[in-house]
Amino acid sequence: MKLLFILVANIFTDGGTLMMSLILLCLLLSIFFLIKGFMSVKSNAANSKKMLKLAVDSSLLGLVIGFFASILGLISAFDSVEAMGNPDPSVFAGGLKVSLLTATFGLFTFIIARVGILILKALQKEESN
Question: Rounded distance, CA 15 to CA 10, Å?
C-alpha cells in the first residue's frame, strides 16, 4: 500500500502539481455532485438534475484542464529541445511523458465521472416513470 502511494505521488508531481491538483479537484467535485445527486433522486428530482449537470460540467472541466496542461507541457518540451540544439532523445521522451500525464489524469477523471453520470441518468429516468 505504501509503495502504491509513493508511485501515485511521484506521478502526481511529475505531471505538475498545480495542474494535477486542479484535475483532482474536478474529480472530487464530480464525485461530490454525483453522491448528492444519488441521495436526492427520490426526494428531490430537481436537485438531482442540478447535481447531474454540475457533475457533467466539472468532469468536462477536468478533461479540458488535462489537455490544456498537456499542450503546455509539449510547448515546454519543445522549448527545451530548441534551447539545447541537438538534445538527447531521452530528454525529449521525458518531456513527452510529463506532458501526457496530465492528459491521462484528465481522461481518467472524465471516465470515472461519466460512469457515475450514466448511472444517475438511468436512476432519474427510472424514478420519472
Answer: 9
C-alpha cell read off for 2: 505504501
Distance CA 61, CA 71 (A): 15
pLDDT tens, position by position, 34-84: 999 999 998 999 999 999 999 999 999 999 999 999 998 888 878 877 887
Question: For 2-36, how does the pLDDT look when each residue is reduced to its tens digit (9 = 90+)?
Answer: 888 888 788 888 888 899 999 999 999 999 999 99
DSSP structure string for the chain: -HHHHHHHHHHHHHT-HHHHHHHHHHHHHHHHHHHHHHHTTTT-HHHHHHHHHHHHHHHHHHHHHHHHHHHHHHHHHHHHHHHHSS--HHHHHHHHHHHHHHHHHHHHHHHHHHHHHHHHHHHHHHHH-
| C-alpha separations of 17 from 27, 100, 110 in Å | 15, 14, 19
The domains of the chain are located at 2-128
